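Fold Annotation — chain and its backbone
Encoding — discrete vocabulary of local shapes
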Amino acid sequence: MPPADFLDLPDRAAKPRTTGLTHVLDPGAGVRAVADLLSSAAAHLDIWKVGWGTAYVDAGLDAKIALLRRHGIAVCLGGTMLEIAWAQDRVERCLGWAADAGFDHVEVSRGTVPMSLQDKSRLIAHAARRFTVLAEVGSKAPGDQQAARTWPHECVSDLEAGAALLVTEGRQSGTVGTFDSAGRVRPDVVEAVVSAVDPARVVFEAPRSTQQAWFVRRFGPDVNLGNVGLGEVLSVETLRLGLRSDTAALPTQQSAGAGPA
């Protein structure tokens, strides 16, 4: 069946994209599940984060990474694993292993182990010699709502250290970082971040559909969205294109006409 093309929809850049990125969180999906998703959604996927430390124990990791790279999808090692390696003085071994496994992106964060901003900058600069670095900003701790004024400094510092993209913390729950405990977006934090850096350099973690819709309405269809669930890739694309009521901008009946007689 040919692709549908009869509606007026926002333009979306073809891959490889630099904006409008969809970044997914993989909690340990098997190779067959990945292949099934890619059969329908590969064109809408840009960055695949292997999270929750699953890369360390997944017997199918090599096959998964090879499959993703054949479809032009960047593969990112989650930040917590690198934090643990840093705490155990195993950074070089971790990064060497990641390169051998086929990762081309790594996330650098400091949300699990105590790490100064200076140490984070050094880790970003070191990782950026071999990888595209995504630097995560914000606290993972429930109830730790960092004031909006504190976010810009770390964002700028991470980019200056060599990060290609920033990731605003939201976790899978969507109740920390840029969100309150009920999952509502904290607009003051978002505006503080984009007042300091280009929104095109920011991936907003937004695991919930209401959060994804908020960012699409605020920044348009080419906003970068992160921590998208594997089962929600197509639905995020329809949010971007205004094919769901949350983001649809419909003409009135009079302006659109009554249709064919």
